[in-house]
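Revision sheet: structure tokens.
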Amino acid sequence: MDTPAYPEARPAESGGRTSTEVATARMRWRAAAESLFPTLVADPSGYAGAVEAIGAVASALGRRNADLDDLVDAVAAPERLVAELEVRVPPSVPVALLVAVACGMRERDLITEQVRRDRSAAVARARATGSQWAVLEGPERIEDLTGGDAGGPAGCIHLHLPSGTELRATVDAWSREPFRVDVIPSGGTTPTGRSFTERGAWLDEFHRARADLEA
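Predicted:
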């Protein structure tokens, strides 16, 4: 069975920074791990110390409920943050890269928290209207799902409330079979999925799977 394709979670939101400031900082912390760890391959003690320090900074950012604005500030003044937290950084480890990696970890936590809130709100809306389905991500109508090109796979996730089963549809223009439907039951049951070359067959499969769950 093919591996299900999952739409990427939307980024956590910033309260006051401009989109350019956030995007610039995000590029720095997302690239930091690729830059930092290869330099420490020949330095086991430095590597271990870096991992410990990154964990300490990331944990502190979490305890502070740091948002995107706080992360932008952190990567702009990494030495100040490390001094405030009294985190010991190995001499061989660049402080700027270490803090950036920790900020990347915190951003992933923020995304997870945002996804959880969005999904809870979608479920609440569906229950309030008496619907069997909650739209967790993407459009309500599968026919409205487009894209999947330069921006990466596009998709939607519909949750069948009575069974807890997720019905996912994705479009990936870079795949030989760009259209895919996945049925992901709750409780650890094995997911099923199919990929298609034609949009019409993909739409038919989505509606068939939806009807089976409603039956």
